[in-house]
Amino acid sequence: MTAQRIFITGGAGFIGSRLCTALRATGATVTAFDNLHPQVHGDGAAARLQPGLVIGDVRDRDALSAALGDARPDIVVHLAAETGTGQSADEPSRYCDVNVVGAANLIEALRALETPPRRVVLAATRAVYGEGAYADGSGPLAAPPPRAVEAMASGVFDLIGEDGRPLTPHPTPESLPPRPGSVYGSSKLMQEYLLQQSPAPWDHVILRLQNVYGPGQSLRNPYTGVLSIFCQQVMAGRTLNIFEDGEIYRDFIFVDDVVAAFVAACATEKAAGQIINIGAGRATSIREAAELILAELKSDRGLTISGDFRAGDVRYAVGDTRKAHDLLGWRPEVSFEQGVAALVAWARDEAPAL
To answer: Is 59 in contact with 103 (CB distance < 8 Å)?
Structure first.
């Protein structure tokens, strides 16, 4: 990546700030573009400016165009987005404005450059799959519709087939047709469509991220990062409320492994035009994750499996990551246990500043 100019939207964020550092270490010149939203960064974030950071919002077409004109990027990584399933249901216009209109603004600004970039890498999400891949024992993998609120209210959390029997979850491959079950997932899928369907002289790579976690993930944002939320709650002396029956499964991937995937996506030619899952490929229940955090924090507060639920949540979200191995030469290196230990150690140090 030596001598490459790289522009990263959301470059001051959880993933973006680390990606800036990693790309600079390869010899690239990096410009970060970020609005430093207080929900994510807290108050006073502008006072902690990093080198190469331009403060701006992807909804501001003029500011975005000016920053791109100055940066003249060879590669663009689009990380800027509103995230969080629950909040997207309450604020759909905000999510569509940032995620959909923001992506459209970026594409139009790039097309207006005298020399457009050669590649755009999109931080996408597994939320586009909705419930993800299931089978009934005889047919092919398919994405069932979102779970009915009425069923979850009665304590039925597993997905049920037309024959009345539970469906069997499987790691979701990229070939599964999208079926988002939230405003967030739909707005992120629209980003993919915009990138795929807008005529442009660059190629693109779409990385569908599983549940990213690690040091630096906001402890103050109540809508994203369940492991960070658990850390904050335990350190505040609260008993953890585990939704449904505790058997909600996620594919947790450590932030440094995600950064390595983005570096590979910027540099690997055969990734052009591809959609690639980025995850650990390991199913971990929310109950197991909570128990590990409690143990790391040496807390006796415990947890409660409450049966509470949230409309739009998925039951089993695990990615089939073979394509990432084959195309990017990428494999995660940090185990879940190592990653949680690092997250907890950081959260302990960060807590007094909250």
So the answer is: no
Which pLDDT tens digit goes with each residue over 320-347?
Answer: 999 999 999 999 999 999 999 999 999 9
- In angstroms, rounded to a whole number, what is the distance separating the alpha carbons of residues 239 and 331? 35
**Residue 78 dihedral angles phi and psi, to the nearest 5°:** -100, 100
Name the catalytic one among 95, 129, 134, 184. Answer: 184
Tell me how far the alpha carbon of residue 352 is from its chain's centroid.
27
286, with CB counted inside 10 A (0-12, 13-18, 19+), is: buried
Give one DSSP letter per residue of 96-122, joined into a string: IIIIIIHHHHHHHHHHTSSS--SEEEE
- Identify the band that residue 43 occupies on the pLDDT scale cut at 50, 70 and 90: low
Residue 83: partners with Cβ closer than 8 Å, 6 or more residues away: 125, 184, 223, 224
Measured between alpha carbons, how far is 349 from 270 in angstroms, rounded to an integer?
A: 41
| Tokens coding 234 | 């335990």
Is 184 a known active-site residue?
Answer: yes
As a whole number, the mean pLDDT across the chain is: 93
Q: How far apart are CA 134 and CA 111, in angstroms?
A: 40
pTM for the predicted model, two decimal places: 0.94
CA dihedral (274, 182, 84, 238) positive or negative: negative
Give the pLDDT score at 84.
Answer: 82
Residue of 270, 265, 267, 323 lying closest to 121 (CA atoms)? 265
Give how far Cα 306 sits from Cα of 84, 216, 320, Å: 21, 29, 30
Does the pLDDT of residue 88 top 90, yes or no? no
Residue 47 has pLDDT above 50, yes or no: no
What's the confidence (pLDDT) of residue 45? 47
> CA–CA separation, 55 vs 225, rounded Å?
24
Give the Cα separation of 255 and 27 in Å (integer). Answer: 21
Q: What tokens does 110 get? A: 């790039």
Q: How far is CA 264 from CA 9, 252, 270, 347, in A?
A: 18, 20, 11, 29
- Phi/psi of residue 342, nearest 5 degrees: -65, -40
